# Entry
Amino acid sequence: MSDRGRFGRMGFILAAVGSAIGLGNIWKFPYITYANEGGSFVLVYLIAIVLIGAPIMFAELIIGRRTQQSPYGAFAELGKQALGGKAWSAVGGLGVFTGFVLLSYYAVIAGWTVYYFGRCLTWSLQGYDVQNAPLGEMFGGFLANGALQITFLAIFLGVTTGVVLLGVKSGIERVTKTLMPILGVVLVLLAINSIRAPGFGDAMRFLFHIGPIDADGFLEAVGHSFFTLSLGMGAMITYGSYVSKKQSIPGSTFLICLFDTLIALIACVIMFSIIFSIPEAERATTFGRSSTMLFTTLPSMFYALPLGGLLSPVFYLLVAFAALTSTIGLLEVAVSYFIDARGWTRKKATLFCGAAIFALGVPSALSLGASNGLSSFNPFGSLATGVLDTFDYTVSNWFLPVGGLLTAVFVGWMLKPELLRDELEEGHGTFKAFGLWLFLLRFVGPVAILWILWAVIGGRSFA
Ligand code: PHE
# Structure
């Protein structure tokens, strides 16, 4: 147990907020919001965070703090009192596995933000030079450059590994405590700055008008609430295992969900204010509703705005920070498994996991055009093309929902309500909404997730 470590009070909140806030907020949420016509999608997402995400976060934090163990050991220990016994440790095992796969491709995308930071810095210093060479082409070239992809993957994983190597308190806590406030402050400043952008009003209307939403949009919002809150794969169980009994689980959950949601909305305000500042005709041609808008559209739009040259490197650096605090959380899930369940030292566990995840990430890095075979790898047919896409499809549509469902069922149905109440009230005092929480965890969450899985089985993809 000597290599486990423990968070301080604010340390835990910031580390958990750091895990939650990441590419999911700044890269994925804006583009799926755009693709789903804003407004109602945002509303459904907010409701999903409150009714489905937050209750499952309670559940994960309870499991972690109760057992003071990482997911595998935590499920094994609590499983002893449940129907099914130690077999529940498989859910923890699934989480560790999901962490490996998710981190391996997440770090590839995170690497792009570092590359763009460098690019924007050069553009700021030497002038933005790609007015005539479309950014899409440049981006495509970058993706297809295997050496560059692997280099940036290595840089990102290297930094992540370095932080996790330093341990819970002096690595994870210190880095997230430094980066998260900077991220928050600068994003708020960028958002205030975007009020001056001509597209600000349209952006707000787009984000907050209520319009029609179809079932797919609804399910996508629910699914995303898992990804963005780092649920369904044991990240919050792991962080929960480093939390002191004096800390309030409901209070912490509230803060994590609040900050995560605020940052997602602020990211949208910043990006849409820029996008809606561009005349509609031009927007339609430069802006396919694609997942790459952060990298193909935004840079040129930055440079069209006053001070854009200054803002853009800052922006990409922040996205890299946000991604880093998420990759740290992901790596810690895998590392804590080897420390707790295998008795390894932190050093051995971290170096091994870092290297293994890098090896697993290489095929993803090469599946964006560098290797024909890897780029056209499509075991799920038209649902996902290439290794990176396939991993993302599997994690977002299967692993995270299944992990979340099993966690909700385990905590909601298998554990004794007295144990849950006891853990929830420890460090909090009387928890009045206990009955409501249990209802959401037992019924609302599982039904929504089963609906997602049903749609996925029917051939839909929400990655
Ligand atoms: N929540 C992170 C994001 O929004 C992704 C993540 C998922 C991190 C699961 C850790 C665990 O980018």
